[in-house]
Amino acid sequence: MKRMMKIVLLLIGVCVLLLSAPTVSAVSLSVCPNLQQVFRGSLVSLSCVDDGQTADGWTVKRTRGGPTEDCGGFGRLLGSFSVVDLSAPSETFWCEDSSGQQSDNVYFSVQSDTADKAVILEIPALPVRTGSDVILRCRHRNGATVRAYFFTKGSSVGHKPEHNITNIMQADEGLYCSTDQGGKSPQSSLRVRDPPTIIHPPPPSTSTNFAPPLTCPPSPPLPASTCPPPPSLLVPVVAGLVSGLLLVLVLGLVLFLCWKLKGTAAMKRRV
After folding, report:
1. 167 Rama sector, left if φ>0, alpha if ψ -120 to 50, beta otherwise
2. 87-91, 161-165, 184-188: which range is least confident on average?
3. Domain boundaries in the chain?
4. Are 235 and 54 in contact (CB under 8 A)?
5. pLDDT at residue 196 is higher than 90
6. How far apart are alpha carbons 58 and 25 in whole angstroms?
7. pTM, rounded to two decimals
């Protein structure tokens, strides 16, 4: 009997751990402008979105390799947007709610303006969808687009004004950089994701943007641009269904074992 009770307690403990495990959130971090590499002192606006709408109860957070900071402690708030002046060599941002759920991380490489580091590679900060087209450009500190050698996963793909990737696939995911006479850009990872499952197909588009578009907040230092959010995920729904099914199975097994124990005890009393 003691052995059976230990099994019951173990099953209950496993169920509790499964139900309390963190789930992947459908909330995403929106970035405007959608660039992974920037020059020091550049402004970016960040916000937490869910299906293109502001996600209430979520906060933009940051780390530079040290303690985690909340927006308000860094940058300034403009409505639901956090406007940040990037200055550290690398910075990581994400969205988080009070229960500890987190969105995917977004990384920034911040380029200084020294003589040997005067260019950046314009590459999306957010994941791009399979099947879309991506254009990578090498840009000088003065804003000019320059001819450069583009490197993909360590191999050169030519000396040209821009590198076009059409009908992007998972195989295109990886590290990219560029170099010209002004210097070499940092290496940044291009992330590729499959499009989400949707009921109604979106309007056709060949850009790397995600629909629906999200407009940058009004701020004089920021250039006018549109910044659509990445697609929401169905993972939280599936995780909830799986957890619920596991809970039902464990409870059913517990009730069955209790019934067996009661039957055994009743037979012993008759004897």
Report:
1. left
2. 87-91
3. 2-20+240-270, 28-232
4. no
5. no
6. 11
7. 0.63
Question: 44 has which bridge partners?
Answer: 84
Least confident of 51-55, 56-60, 84-88: 51-55
Class of domain 28-232: mainly beta
pLDDT digits (tens, 9 = 90+) for 232-258: 434 444 455 556 666 666 666 667 776
Instruction: Quote the percentage of the chain above a pLDDT of 90.
Output: 35
Amino acid identity of residue 211, one-letter, is A
Report the distance separating Cα 146 and Cα 112, nearest Å.
18
Residue 231's pLDDT is: 41
